[in-house]
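Design request, tokens follow.
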């Protein structure tokens, strides 16, 4: 898979076009892609949502019997505020984490199925 060096965009704002940041892919470990995150002008507005989501995810990975509903609500808030755009266009679904200058994600061109 030739993802290395690709630039994926994170967009947001009221019209979904504000530049939140870019991810330059440097590792592809199916189904995850990861790379360097460069924040854009819109990142400050969404940074707290990414921080909360990641903190809840890490808590869940460390705690047996964790109730994942709080993490799901936090991630839903991230999804309401941003969209992920591949080099060929917007993706239908994604799971994106951003921490500092690192980002990692998985995506689908089709909507995820609800369990």
């Amino acid at each position: 898979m030739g993802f290395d060096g690709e630039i994926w965009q994170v967009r947001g704002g009221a019209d979904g076009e504000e530049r939140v940041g870019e991810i330059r892919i440097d590792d592809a470990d199916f189904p995850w892609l990861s790379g360097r995150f460069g924040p854009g002008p819109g990142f400050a507005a969404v940074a707290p949502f990414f921080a909360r989501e990641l903190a809840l995810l890490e808590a869940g990975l460390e705690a047996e019997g964790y109730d994942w509903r709080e993490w799901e609500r936090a991630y839903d808030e991230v999804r309401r505020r941003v969209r992920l755009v591949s080099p060929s266009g917007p993706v239908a679904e994604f799971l994106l984490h951003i921490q500092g200058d690192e980002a990692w994600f998985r995506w689908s061109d089709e909507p995820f199925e609800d369990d």
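Comment from the thread starter after seeing the answer: thanks! The longest strand covers residues 18-29.
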